[in-house]
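Researcher: I'm preparing a figure for a lab meeting and need a structural model of a single chain. I don't have an experimental structure, so a prediction will have to do for now. The sequence is pasted below. Please return the structure as tokens so I can convert it later.
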Amino acid sequence: MARKKQYNEDEVIKKAMGLFWRNGYEATSVRMLEKEMGINQFSIYSSFKNKEGVFLESIKYYRTQINVITSKLENSNNGITGIKTYFYDFLEFSKEGSLRKGCLVTNTVNDIKEDMEPTIMNVLKNFANEIRDLFVSNLKQDDKRDKLMINKQADYLMNCLLGLSVASKVFNKEQLENTIEITFKNL
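Model: Understood. Here is the structure written out token by token.
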């Protein structure tokens, strides 16, 4: 007979997500997950198969958390202004108290090698492309933009967002806001 789980899966995944976000995928061990999640190694393997399984569930949870700001962008009818708001919202989202953690997705892309973790990299690329698609959708709200320019600008904005994610761990609020303002001045 299967044993009943003695923990709330959402709670332990939230804790695991925080650990991956702070330490990175590579530096996070199963022992660290065990301690952070408050469950034993057997339970981790039983529920999630391995560290990769815990991480993939963490990304699903991250999506639900960031959905607060992505849904605003998805429902925006403000074109570039909606995207700019997303950039500012992202900075607020990525804070934990006075600590800026960047983006879990960006941090992990910088942390892993695609050939070593192809499943994870594929999930992260899909996530990034979904954000890019939202940029395209918002850029299309301006009738004056042609399709080729929209795609180039969406690529540019994704590059800026990824850079902002990394910069948010180093620069102060004023510097980050300056970066956003210059990014959108160039569109």
